[in-house]
Amino acid sequence: METLQTTDSLLDAIAAAPGAPGQELFDPATGELVGVAPVHGLAELEAAIGAAKAAQPAWAAAGHEARSAALLAAAEAVEARAEELARILSREQGKPLNGPNARFEVGACAAWLRAAAATALEPETVVDDGTTRAVLHYRPLGIVGAIGPWNWPMMITVWQIAPALRMGNAAIVKPSSYTPLSVLALIRVINEALPDGILTVVAGDRQVGSALAEHPAIAKVMFTGSTGAGKAIIRSSADTVKRLTLELGGNDAGIVLPDADPQAIAEGIFWGAFINTGQTCAALKRLYVHTGLYDQVCQALTDFARTVPMGPGLEEANLLGPLQNASQHAIVKDLVQAAKDSGARILLGGDPDESAPGHFYPTTLVTDIDNENPLVTEEQFGPALPIIRYTDIDHAVQMANALEVGLGASVWATDTDAARAVAHRLEAGTVWINTHGTVHPMAPFGGAKQSGYGLEFGTEGLKALGQPQVIHG
C-alpha cells in the first residue's frame, strides 16, 4: 500500500523518469505543456500481469467486507486530493473546472467507489423445492483489463475498476494516449488504499491495448470507446474467449412531442447535448422536434446556448471547453461545413476562430437539415446539434431507430405517460424522459445494437465482474 505525502505534486509523482520513454501532453485550450507521461510497453504490461497474479488470490480471500472498506478508503483519498486531480483533468482533457465538468467528474469517482462498496450481492437460492437446492454465487474472475477513453478518463476508469475490485479481481488499466496523466494521477491516489499489485496503470499505445485484450491471463476486458475499436477488441479477445463489457459509440436521438413546453425543456436539452462540449458517448446528438413547435424550441435553445460561456478550463467562469484534440476538432468542423454546403441553416456558431489558440469550436445549432445529412447520421462527438423537423410521431420513431447504434435516447413532453409510450418504442439501452444522459450508480447502463453489450452499475454491474457458480445441494 502506497501513501502519498500531501505536499507532493501528483504531476511530479507520475512523470516519466529521466531517460525513460515519455509523452508530452499539452493543454487543448492553451497549447501549454501539462506534463510528461511515461510510455509503457509490453514489458511493463507483463510486469503488471505478474504482480496482479501474485496479489489477486489474497485480495479475493479478504472477502467483500475488507474490499469494501478499501474502496471507501480510496474514495476518501480521492476527496482529499480532489482539487489537484480536477486541475490535472482540466488542463489535460480541456473541460472546465465548474459545471458538469472536472470537479464534478472527480466527485463522481468518489461516489462510484462508495456505491460499489455499499452495493449488496448475496448468494441467491434459485431452487429449493424439497428435492433440489441450488444456490447462485459469484466468484472473482481473476484479472480484469480496463481500457478507457479520453472524454471522461477518470470517471469511466472508476466505473470499470470499482466493481472489478469489489468482486475480488485485480485490474490493469490502459488509459487513452490523449489523457494518460489524469488516469495515472487518479490511480496513484486510489492505490493509497489498496495492496500492491492489485491495481496498475499501463500507459501505452494501441499495441499495448491489443496485447492486453489478447493476453491469456486477462479474464475480462472492459472497454469504453468507439464502435470500431470495440470490434477490434472483440477480435483480439476471441481466441481466449474473454468476458467483455463494451460501451461503444452512440448517436443518441431526442424526440420532442407536440405538447412540450419549449422554455421548460431548453436547458435540459442543451446540457443533454453539450455536456463536456458534446464529447460524451451518451450525449444527445440529433434532436427531432414536431413541426408545431419547431421554431419555438429552436429559439429557446438558441437563447439558452448564448448564456453558456466557453473558454479555458482553469478560468472559473467557463462551463464549456475546447475539443480535446485536433482530430476531433477536424471531424466537427467538416461535418458542420457539409451541413452548410447542403443548405442547412446555422442558428448559432459554425464559425470557429482559426487564429485563436486551442481546439475551440463554438456552440453550434443547425436547423432545416435533412435526416440523411452526415451531421445527423455520423456521431459528431462535439458541440454541434442538428435539429430535424417531423410531423408524424411514427416517422420520428422510425428516424430515431434507423441507425445501427442505440446507447441512449430521450423523449421530451408535458404528458409523461405519452412520453413513456414513445420511449418503449425506441431501440436504445437507456431512454430518459425530460432529461438526457443522467446516470445513477444503482441504475444499470449499457447499449443496444452496435453501441455494445453488457451492463454496468449497481448489482448488475457487480455480477458482470464475477464468474457465476451454481452449487447444488
From TrEMBL:
Domain of life according to the entry: Bacteria
Q: Which PROSITE patterns match?
A: ALDEHYDE_DEHYDR_CYS, ALDEHYDE_DEHYDR_GLU
Q: Where is the Aldehyde dehydrogenase domain?
A: 24-467
According to its UniProt record, which protein family does this protein belong to? Answer: Belongs to the aldehyde dehydrogenase family.
Q: What is the protein's name according to its record?
A: Aldehyde dehydrogenase (NAD(+))
Question: Mind listing the UniProt keywords for this protein, alphabetically?
Answer: Oxidoreductase
Keyword Flavoprotein found: no
Q: Could you name the active-site residues?
A: 247
What would be an example GO MF term here?
A: oxidoreductase activity, acting on the aldehyde or oxo group of donors, NAD or NADP as acceptor
Q: Which InterPro entries match?
A: Ald_DH/histidinol_DH (IPR016161), Ald_DH_C (IPR016163), Ald_DH_CS_CYS (IPR016160), Ald_DH_CS_GLU (IPR029510), Ald_DH_N (IPR016162), Aldehyde_DH_dom (IPR015590), LUC3-like (IPR044086)
- Per the UniProt record, the source organism is Sinomonas atrocyanea
